[in-house]
Amino acid sequence: MPAPTELENRLAAAGQAGLLRFWDELDEGGRWKLAGEIDAIDFDRITKLFAAKNAGPVDDGEDSPAAKARRATPPSAFVGRHDPRRSEASSVGKGLLAEGKVGAILVAGGQGTRLGFDKPKGMYPIGPISEKTLFQILCEQLLQRAQTAGVAVPYYVMTSDATHDATVAFFEEHAFFRLPPEDVFFFRQGNMPAVDAATGEVLLAAKDAVAKSPDGHGGLLAGLKASGALADMAARGVEVLHYHQVDNPTAIVCDPVVLGFHRMHGSEMTTKVVPKVSPTEKMGLVCEVDGSTQIVEYSDLPDDVAEKRADDGELFLRWGNTAIHVFERAFLDRLADDADALPFHVAHKKVGHLASDGGVVTPDAPNAYKFERFIFDALPAAEVALVVETNRAREFNPVKNASGADSPATSRQALIDLHTYWMRQAGAEIADGIKVEISPLFAVDSEQVARKITPGTRYVDDLYLTSRTAAH
Ligand code: UTP
To answer: Cα 381–383–385 angle (5° rounding)?
Structure first.
């Protein structure tokens, strides 16, 4: 059977006729599959993105990223780490939680290519002693928060085709880490096809499959809407969402302090930042450009701007994005109604595919463009945005790479250091060099630890405190 004429015509008009190259070799099932995948592609968008990328950096006017970076200033709506209103903010945040107005969003659709783990990253064992997974540590934090507040805190977990089945199965195998299953809402983000960087042609991963990957954490907006998650939030009376990523076990899930500041400021989107450690650190910077809060990417930062110092000797632009945000549900709702609310970013990557002769290509240099949206690009759309500083060692310890910086080793050590600190704050004597791990079900901060241990107790062996650990 030849390819349906309508499909052929549509692809020919888009310059993508090559997608049907192997049509005659496919069985009925393969044809349906391929036609379905092609149908999901917005070729108009792909053509425009490719044309814009290949036109190169024509835009050196005042809207170019470098010109914007030169106009950037530190954010003016800013709450520092030692703000005297912290305890007021904490009460406001706890009030929101107790009224059932808070939900949490976990994005777990990424492919984790840098880590090189063969399962979804959330299944990575990170607990220094317990070997609990990233998923478990985050879920237990949420459970603790919900139990303390005495209400349900729904968890909206974004997956992708790359992670969905394994993630759902893992939660089921572990009885949702004791979260009520009805409070865990899985939804899938979309995909974007990869295109040949030289020709703009969409690549095939197999004779019956397009080469595609998740459309970035900005796929959250469309995913929330299409899955009914936004409607679920509304039905539950959830007004505020705490957003965090699966790779950071020290993110303070539903931190009452940031929730409180967000509400006190009347913010639509609040983001937590940490100081950059060096001018060259590869971190997006939260800045103000022409009166709107936004992220300037490190790659867009001219060296002289990256190195510029303020009067106090600190970097002039120094607030790095932690990817921990708070959103008003109404803001997400509004953005999700606009399919173009977030721009696409284009990345030059190695993408394996089928050549026109059917041979498998495994490139050793970037050969393709991938398209992704980033959720932090929502910041400028917020009518009111807020930036809140957090303690880097406390809260920003992501697992990105297999070794070196931002790896399992650094993240595990951060958990040990943090939990050792909590114990010492609570009056325990911790021998140097031992490992300490505290389950979120035992405590999520030093005050909770202090209520459960006897000051002055000395610990000389590795110590794991769980919910079953008797008080000392
Ligand atoms: P990263 O941007 O670090 O990507 O994701 P990644 O997929 O985990 O790792 P690399 O870049 O391939 O090595 C930051 C967070 O955003 C989620 C990830 O799961 C992680 O929690 N994410 C990323 C998505 O949910 N979807 C995406 O399409 C991309």
So the answer is: 85
Maximum Cα–Cα distance for the chain, whole Å? 80
Of 378, 350, 346, 336, the closest CA to residue 45 belongs to 346
- Ligand 1 atom 4, closest CA: 110
Q: Rounded CA gap, 138 and 254, in Å? A: 10
Render pLDDT for 156-207 as a digit per residue (tens, 0 to 9).
999 999 999 999 999 999 999 999 999 999 999 999 999 999 999 999 999 9
Mutate to test the pocket of ligand 1, among 105, 107, 396, 401 (most ligand atoms within 8 A of CB): 107
DSSP, residue by residue, 257-276 = HHHHHHHHHT-SEEEEEEE-
385 in the Ramachandran plot: left (φ > 0), alpha (ψ -120 to 50) or beta? Answer: beta
Q: How far away, in angstroms, is 269 Cα from ligand 1 center?
A: 20
Beta bridge mates, 368 = 196, 349
What pTM value is reported for the model? 0.96
Ligand 1, atom 25: nearest CA belongs to which residue? 109
CA atoms within 13 A on the CB side of 299: 3
pLDDT in tens, 240-287: 999 999 999 999 999 999 999 999 999 999 999 999 999 999 999 999
For ligand 1, pick from 186, 188, 243, 245 the residue to mutate: most ligand atoms within 8 Å of CB. Answer: 245
Quote the CA–CA distance of 90 and 98 in Å, as a whole number: 12
CB 276 within 8 A of CB 285: yes
Which two tokens mark 97? 């939680």
